[in-house]
Amino acid sequence: MFLSKIILRGDDRMIEQRGYEKDASRRLFQHAKKFIPGGVTANIKHFAPYPIFMKKGYGSKLIDVDGVEYIDYSLCYGALMTGHGHPRIKEATLKQLDDSGTVIFGTPHELEVKMAEKLIALYPSMDQVRFTNSGTEAVLLAIRLAVAYTNKPKIGKFEGHYHGGLNQLLVSINPTQRDAGRPDQPEAVFESDGIVQSERENTIVLPFNDLEATEKLLRKHQDELAAVILEPVQGGFIPAEPQFIHGLRDLTNELGIVLIFDEVKTGFRVALGGAQSVYDVDPDITTLGKVLGGGFPIGAVGGHEEIMMQSAATAKSDVFSVGSDSHKTKNIVFHSGTYNGHPLVLAAGLETIRLLEDENELKSTFEKTMLLRKELEKLYETYHIKMQTIGMGSIFNLVFTDQTIRHYRDMWQADTSFRQAIDIELLKLGIYLKPLNRYSTSTAHTVEDIEKTVSLHERAIHRVLQQSEPLYAVK
To answer: What PROSITE patterns would the database entry show (predicted)?
Structure first.
């Protein structure tokens, strides 16, 4: 027998009733709201009934301000591929600080060259590299380069894909079924206020994993589209189908559209060379972030030489040289940032890559991730609950449906209320993950962590079924 979905979908009252008791976090959150809009400095950090404030982290564990320990499957939304406080990364960062005698130079330095060389060796699609301070900044530069290269104004992005908080791309990430439009021709649903109409007109929304419908839209708008950007693994857990991603590469080549892979989530998490190495597809531009910084803020843009060289600085292209002959800046793609290529960040990032270049580290992490996925699927099947894990490498998600998940719209049939209830119980039991988010594992996670995680899932199932019994109907 199978259980139906919880009736009170998304009901905040129900979340409050199920909510955990974290006294110190609750007090800190109420205090923070007096000084910080909404109590958090990034919207993604908020969840009901209130976010949990953390105090310490080590290996695969977090400890909150109430002193409660968790097995961490958020890992700073995937950034910490080697877990919290890896001794080699700490040592590399401190050594860089000690050797240089300063935090930052504000000038070129050798680590910029070393990291660029390393990325080009790992990502054959890259001829040259520029550094930024976040994945969002990397996408901003990638879009600017593509527009300059093609002299076309519009960008194609896929429904359900997230590319940071840029106005032009903050669209159709999580549209409602009512607003989303036709499956083969999605509506552009903007996800924030404050975006002017002129910016709204330059984004074409495309249907992921539907090559036929995507081709029609690309051919219709080929004279306007500078680039198509996508996450090769949507949201970090829905992989592109091989025939789709190869077909998209062929199409963009034919139509003169720059193809951008946003590998901020997937870079180093599905393979050292990112998802593009798994699919054997070379995009024109790649954006990276998260894992690349070893826990510090970073972004990178790499691509074909003729595209990247548009940002090459010259003596006569310095917008900051007051009174100089800088009229040639109109022919240069402007890119700058005081903290780009920060030496401490690159030291941490290079040591992270060295750790992951040990084949046994990645292989073992992927094997433990798959073990966790299989054991969780087996557990939920025991309770006749329709659940599947979807993902690639060291990232995956739990989706409560037995239907095939190929794109964003398929997620509408998943039982998110049951998933949210499970996640809240897990927070009480010592598993940290923002409710409804994807799981990320690290080299620090152990088989013991996995066994405990599965055990705590079983306890969470019992609690949710007991508390929700009146809301369920038996088929």
So the answer is: AA_TRANSFER_CLASS_3
